[in-house]
# Entry
Amino acid sequence: MPVALRRVQIAFCCLAMVFLIGPTLVIIPISFSSANFLSYPLPGFSLQWYEKILQPQPWMSALLNSLIIGVGATLVSTVLGTLAALGMSRGRLPARSMILAVVISPMIVPVVISGVGMYFFFARLGLVASFLGLVLAHAVLAVPFVLITVTATLKNFDMNLVRAAASLGASPFHAFRTVTLPLIAPGVISGALFAFVFSFDEVVVALFISGPGQRTLPRQMFDGLRDNIDPSILAMSTLLVIISIVLMGGGALAQKRAAANRSIANL
Amino acid sequence: MARAMTSDVLLRPRAGAADGQQGRVSALATGFRADRRRQTIVSLVLIGPLVAFIVFAFVLPLGTMLFHAINNPEVRNALPMTLASLEGWDGADTPPEAAFEALAADIRAAADPKVLAEAGRRLNYEITGFRSLLAKTVRTVRKALVEPARAQLLAIDGNWDKPAYWRVIQRNGAPLTAFYLLSAVDLRPGENGGVQMAPPEERLFLSTLMRTLTISALVTVICLFVAYPVANAIVAIGGRFSAIMLACVLLPFWTSLLVRTSAWIVILQKEGVVNRLLQALNITDAPLELVFNRTGLYIAMVHILLPFMVLPLVSVMKGISPSYVKASASLGAGPVTTFLRVYLPLTLPGVGAGCLLTFIISAGYYVTPTLVGGASDQMLSYFVAFYANTTINWGMSAALGVLLLACILALYGIVGRIVGIGRIVGME
# Structure
């Protein structure tokens, strides 16, 4: 490629970088503002908005609700998704493409439609405005992410290792616990991370089926943005950005370990 | 195998040995088959819980929603006697005396007035004003029934004399209705069983569908033009630059959607950073309207969907050997020809996957358009939620959901034929 063109491309990429992460960075200083308006120049420094979000109502209780639902949904989707990924990777499955279509369908259907359906259906079962309802809803929407991530990991997994374990007298469960699971753990962990991030950020289904008792963090932010936006939302956003950087680092670490495991398995 | 056995059988002296071999082979085959069956059973047992869970928490809810698009219980529940009395009525003239009697009887027989209110709401979808007409009638008739019923009803409201009102009641005696689905594409059930366009002032959803598709298409195209050079740079330049660039693409991916949406609201507002910057640079005199309109919607949606375009492109571009481009250049092709004839065609699978993903996600998007768009920028998903939550018209909400779902499944069908669904979601 001509050098001039490459320079143009690099300049374009730098602009794109500003576009991608600039907005997130710009709002961080405003969260330390001493005023309650949302623009520069900042009149002074203050931690008042952080004090505000550390109050139990509404922010900390919303955070707690989100954590409870996120952990619940992650557990359900990781266990079911990993088991199914193991099943699907064993080959020789009747109606494989139909099963595949069913298990990834929650990812294909727009969340608004899933949300409305769950609202109609869960209302009959008394699951609307309950923690259980939200956990199940988030788990079913997050499960394709787990399935896809774990399946990708299993593709590089050598089934001969399990056969070797069995020939040495290990029971299937023992072989799974001591051979398979440690090797696919990075995939399972990144799948679980995906599931948690999905639930932690999900607002559409929460709008439909959460009651006042299960008000999640995204829902609190959504209502705040729609009604009256003040810097406490930006303070919460700043905390969430820090959390997402940590999670992204965790994801990268898991992938690195997966690569390391691959090279061990290939020895 | 078969031929070997025949020859064995022909050689009499070795018949016994052949029998033994045959026995061993069939035992092996049986064992092999049994093992395979066992493997399949184990697979199904592992997948079973997930399939059961998805059926319960996803397929059944989706089915319930689809059912609500055609479910029509209100009038049947509220006015059974009226419907019976209208059987055989030709719909041309004022209905028989018995129909008025039956309507009054239904109103007085209703144990729960809510059932009548629901029927009124349902009938109101077809004739505006039916709800208040029925409510008024219910109030008066339940207080005191005056014989004959016909005279009393006509005294309450002269509209009861019009066959059109009775025809709507008669039509909605059916347990299932196409009304909502027709309304979702701006059609109405016409007289004599046909369909007709809705009156112009009530046409709402075809233009919403067009708007949804237009916005999604434009967002997809913008994303493609921004993502292509970026993805190419990530793959081609390498080193620290690529790592930083990739992190910039991934960070928004992991950052909360609401954080990014609130950031854009703050930045694009009248007093926001962008307007301050434009004024400081003397590009504009007065602050521009950048948010709560189409401009803000495009900016925020491109930002949110860009990673979904960049990542499939990067994964395809990584697999393209640089030798192809070099070979093309060594054969005398200029950079433009090389790009158009060699590089671009090789990246098309990534372009297809990225565009499909971006288009589908934006077509079903709810949060960002609701918060960043204006009243005239709302897409189908907004109305799905609006009818479910605000006006409690579940049938309409479900029918619009069906319309949106049909568009998206059609797209998946088309692209899935070409590339395969498993490949799009990264399972194969």
Notes: Chain B is about 75% helix and 0% strand. Chain B touches chain A through 91 residues (CB under 8 Å).
